[in-house]
């Protein structure tokens, strides 16, 4: 099953797998929406960040850094369906599209 998420500036998205327990979410791509980068400086980057339920909310893991020159990043991240994760961006200046798919937990 295909999965996608649009992270707009200043938003945090809680990803809850209540209908997909026993599966992994494979996050495979992050893309910077170039139509939303007008407020960014030329060499400025934006980080796709993730917190998970057992991690303090003030600290996040950087999944990738994006900018106008490097606006797409392949990812190979499997998230256990038993976790609740929060995805967000490091600044409030641009939109990130995240995509992937669910696969069975083995």
Explain how this protein is built.
It holds the Pfam family NPL. This is Nucleoplasmin-like domain-containing protein. InterPro entries: NPL. This protein is mainly beta and 106 residues long. The protein has a single domain, classed as Nucleoplasmin core domain (Jelly Rolls, Sandwich), CATH 2.60.120. Helix content is 0%, strand content 53%. The chain is built from no helices and 8 strands. The strands form 2 sheets. It has a 4-stranded antiparallel β-sheet, with no helix packed on it. A 4-stranded antiparallel β-sheet has the order 2-7-4-5, with no helix packed on it. The two termini are 16 Å apart.
Question: What is the CATH C level class, in words?
Answer: Mainly Beta
What profile does the largest beta sheet have? 4 strands, antiparallel
Low-confidence stretches: none
Shape: globular
At the fourth level of CATH, the homologous superfamily is Nucleoplasmin core domain
> Based on the structure given, which CATH architecture is correct?
Sandwich
CATH fold assignment: Jelly Rolls
Helix- and strand-based class? mainly beta
Largest beta sheet: what is the strand line-up?
A: 1-8-3-6
Number of strands: 8
How many distinct folded domains? 1
Helix content estimate? under 10%
Run of helices and strands: EEEEEEEE
- Rg (CA only): 14 Å
Mean pLDDT: 87
Q: In percent, how much strand structure appears in the residues?
A: over 45%
Number of helices: 0
First CA to last CA: what distance? Answer: 16 Å
């Amino acid at each position: 099953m295909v999965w996608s998420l649009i992270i707009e500036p200043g938003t945090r998205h809680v990803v809850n797998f209540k209908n997909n327990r026993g599966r992994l979410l494979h996050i495979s791509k992050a893309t910077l929406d170039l139509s939303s980068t007008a407020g960014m400086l030329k060499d400025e980057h934006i980080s796709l960040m993730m917190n998970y339920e057992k991690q303090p909310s003030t600290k996040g893991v950087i999944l990738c850094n994006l900018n106008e020159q490097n606006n797409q990043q392949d990812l190979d991240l499997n998230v256990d369906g038993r976790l609740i994760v929060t995805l967000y961006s490091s600044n409030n200046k641009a939109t990130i599209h995240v995509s992937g798919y669910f696969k069975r937990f083995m």
